[in-house]
Design a protein that fits this description.
With about 90 residues, this protein is mainly alpha-helical. It has a domain of about 55 residues. The chain contains 4 helices and no strands. The chain starts with 6 loop residues before the first helix and ends in a 22-residue tail after the last helix.
Length: about 90
C-alpha cells in the first residue's frame, strides 16, 4: 500500500514550489485554497515559452478572484519562518 502523505510532506512540497516559482506567501495560500497541486505548478508557470499564458502569480490571483470573489485571502496564514508571539530569543 502506498504511504499516506503527512502534512509535513505537503508543507515541504509547498515550500519547494514557493522557492522554485518565486511565489509570495499570499500566492501560496491562495493556491492552496484553490486546491492546486504544488508539483503541477511547473506546467502552469511556462509563460516564457508559451506567451499566451499569464505569469503564475498573476494566474493564481485571477483564478482566486474569479472563484472567491475577492482579490486576496481574508486572513493571512501565519508565517512559518517567524517565532511564535511571546517567544523571546535570549
Amino acid at each position: 500500500m502506498p504511504k499516506k502523505k503527512t502534512t509535513a510532506d505537503q508543507g515541504q512540497a509547498w515550500a519547494d514550489a514557493q522557492r522554485r516559482h518565486r511565489l509570495s506567501a499570499a500566492h501560496v495560500q491562495m493556491a492552496r485554497e484553490l486546491g492546486l497541486n504544488p508539483k503541477k505548478l511547473g506546467k502552469i508557470d511556462n509563460h516564457r515559452q508559451e506567451p499566451w499564458k499569464a505569469p503564475l502569480p498573476q494566474f493564481i490571483e485571477d483564478l482566486y478572484a474569479r472563484r472567491f470573489g475577492r482579490p486576496t485571502p481574508r486572513t493571512a496564514a501565519p508565517n512559518q519562518d517567524s517565532p511564535p508571539a511571546g517567544a523571546e530569543g535570549g
